[in-house]
Amino acid sequence: xxxxxxxxxxxxxxxxxxxxxxxxxxxxxxxxxxxxxxxxxxxxxxxxxxxxxxxxxxxxxxxxxxxxxxxxxxxxxxxxxxxxxxxxxxxxxxxxxxxxxxxxxxxxxxxxxxxxxxxxxxxxxxxxxxxxxxxxxxxxxxxxxxxxxxxxxxxxxxxxxxxxxxxxxxxxxxxxxxxxxxxxxxxxxxxxxxxxxxxxxxx
Length: 203
Fold this sequence. Notes:
Elements: H1 3-16, E1 22-26, E2 29-34, H2 39-48, E3 56-64, E4 82-90, E5 95-102, E6 110-112, H3 121-132, E7 135-137, E8 166-171, E9 176-181
Parallel strand pairs: 2-5, 6-7
Antiparallel strand pairs: 1-2, 3-4, 4-5, 8-9
């Protein structure tokens, strides 16, 4: 573990204390796991406390742990299915941090919006809402970003069918785009492997 990572780890323990649910160090990076109730408050400390100084939010992404590595996410005590992960950068201290928060409910995954802390979170949170169905409480413009307004479901959820639920096409009679049930039949294709005699050998 590098000196800067050790310094950051000590600062996190001093500043956040009991708000840390888990702090992992792997491959020269720290991952901080916090509860949904503490998420916004922790993020504010990460930005505003001079010892931490994370001025910049690099990324926000949703996570669906429902079939993650055969249930490996169960190492997080009573971990729900959905999580939000953010990546922060401190330019002043030259260090990075990954922060993870699990949504309490699987039916309506909800976490606080941090768009009021870092404006760059705006479209990232909309993307996570669109693709995973994670609701960011306090976001002032939470609507789909990448999929169509009539899209059904959230395509990055692991139980979402590969072909989707509906397809759209242009209807010449109605002179508009219409939605209809998917006409593609789901199937699995197993590639055929042909082994030639003496393949790779000397002829």
